[in-house]
Design goal:
Blueprint lengths: L4 E2 L57 E2 L9 E6 L2 H4 L2 E6 H9 L10 H10 L3 E5 L5 E5 L8 E5 L3 E4 H6 L2 H13 L3 H8 L8 H9 E6 L6 E6 L7 E2 L5 E6 L4 E6 L10 E2 L8 H12 L6 H4 L2 H26 L3 H17 L6 H15 L2 H17 L6 H21 L7
Parallel strand pairs: 1-12, 4-8, 11-14
Antiparallel strand pairs: 2-3, 3-4, 5-6, 7-13, 8-10, 9-10, 12-13
Helix pairs in contact: 10-11, 11-12, 12-13, 13-14
The chain binds S-adenosylmethionine.
The site of S-adenosylmethionine has 19 residues, from β6, α7 and β11.
């Protein structure tokens, strides 16, 4: 929930061209501005800069690279103005991470899945940004939003590696981010500049209150990045949220999903803190990092109800951990029973799981337990669930389909012992 990000399905990635960037090749001197980066031959991973493998797309300006601080990485600012129909994006990251993104086809525009298209065209836009008393601007439902519906799809105006942010002196950091913003198309830049500012100088004030962290990169090389998503940045906080976000590295996209039905006119709210955080530290964190005093029911409502909610959230966490333990130790029947308790507690706390998420888990547990029939039944329901609430990242659906095939094949084998022979 909340900060969950989906892992990338590498089997589906378009690998053409990417690994060339990892060879020990010298960079084109004109592209690399830093005098040190022009030394040749370059060590291991500093290789040539990733380029987008398509004739219609190219970086809008030569990547701007920072002087390397060590021999194992090179960080650059990459700007692509045409990204997602002219929204544009500026990414400051290592050449290794950028190669992974390019290789996965992140920068190639693909049509959204039919479910998302249908929703927009028949039901209309789900939300509008407007003033909300006491909270500046906020996101309000423009129509009824159903439970599980993806109500917002946003892409980053800027994405910066945390390692780069930590390494740079403040004035250099601000200069680099400014450069990243200046490279964006005018409309996106204006939208970003219109966002609410927190404390701090220049662009620091902008990043401080309008960013989310996401993971980018493959396996051990995955790194925390800070993303400025200009639509998402308008969503206010509640400790009892009615929506959450999930990030797709595959599509470089943030999706906001409704936990429950949100009626027209109601504000869309997500939690800026982990849901299991206790009241006192949570309030302090919101005050310190986000500069506001939370007035949600869990912070200001009756103590007793807040304590009960805290207990349930702790229990939800424990149930998930116990379920994973049971699975790891081969107690699949127990794990299935705990999974049901877990789902019930999430619902009780008004933070329901997506049906497809639950079915995915239970299907796998039945499979491990050797009950092919139940595995196939749940796998089928998972597939239906992912189709119905189609994410822009199709990898969950693809995985569910592949799993359904495996479970169905096992079931057929079990039902027809002669199946294999004939
Ligand atoms: C990501 S922005 C949200 C959008 C912002 N309200 C705006 O006008 O653009 C985060 C800032 O919104 C305000 N905010 C968010 N949730 C709030 C809440 N529950 N109560 C009061 N202010 C809130 C705080 O000033 C916070 O630093």
């Amino acid at each position: 929930h909340g900060t969950a990000h989906e892992s990338r399905d590498t089997t589906n990635s378009q690998t053409a061209g990417i690994y060339t960037s990892r060879q020990d090749t010298c960079p084109t001197p004109a592209i690399l501005r830093s005098p040190r980066a022009q030394e040749c031959p370059l060590p291991g991973r500093l290789g040539i800069l990733p380029s987008i493998p398509s004739s219609t797309l190219a970086w809008s300006q030569p990547p701007h690279c920072l002087p390397p601080t060590n021999t194992s990485r090179l960080d650059c600012l990459f700007t692509l103005q045409s990204f997602r129909n002219g929204h544009g994006t500026s990414v400051i990251t290592s050449t290794t991470t950028m190669s992974d993104l390019v290789g996965a086809g992140v920068f190639v525009d693909r049509p959204s899945p039919p479910a998302a298209e249908r929703r927009e065209s028949t039901l209309g836009k789900a939300y509008r940004v407007q003033n909300v008393p006491g909270r500046g601007k906020g996101v309000v439902a423009a129509r009824r939003i159903r439970q599980g519906e993806i109500l917002m799809v946003d892409v980053p105006a800027v994405l910066v590696s945390m390692a780069v942010l930590a390494e740079l002196k403040p004035h250099l950091r601000r200069r680099l981010i400014k450069r990243a913003l200046e490279g964006l198309p005018a409309e996106t830049r204006q939208k970003v500049e219109g966002l609410q500012r927190g404390e701090g100088q220049g662009v620091d004030a902008l990043l401080g209150t309008n960013t989310e962290s996401v993971m980018l990169g493959e396996g051990e090389a995955a790194e925390v990045h800070v993303g400025l998503f200009a639509e998402l940045a308008r969503i206010n906080h509640s400790c009892r949220p009615n929506a959450y976000y999930r990030f797709s590295q595959n599509r470089l996209t943030m999706e906001v999903v409704a936990y429950r039905t949100i009626e027209a006119g109601q504000e869309v709210l997500m939690s800026y803190t982990p849901l299991k955080m206790k009241r006192a530290p949570r309030r302090e964190y919101l005050q310190q990092h986000w500069n506001f005093n939370c007035d949600c029911p869990l912070c200001h409502g009756p103590e007793e109800a807040a304590a009960e909610s805290e207990e349930r959230r702790t229990h939800i966490d424990e149930l998930r951990a116990t379920m994973q333990d049971a699975k790891a130790n081969g107690y699949f029947g127990d794990a299935i029973a705990i999974a049901h308790d877990w789902r019930d507690f999430c619902e009780w706390e008004d933070l329901p799981l997506l049906p497809a998420e639950f079915y995915d888990i239970v299907a796998e547990l039945h499979f491990l337990a050797g009950d092919w029939e139940k595995a196939a039944t749940y796998a089928r329901m998972a597939v239906d669930g992912w189709v119905r609430f189609g994410s822009v990242d199709g990898s969950r659906l693809e995985r569910a389909c592949a799993f359904l095939e495996r479970a169905s094949a096992r079931l057929r084998e079990a039902l027809e012992p002669s199946y294999k022979k004939g």
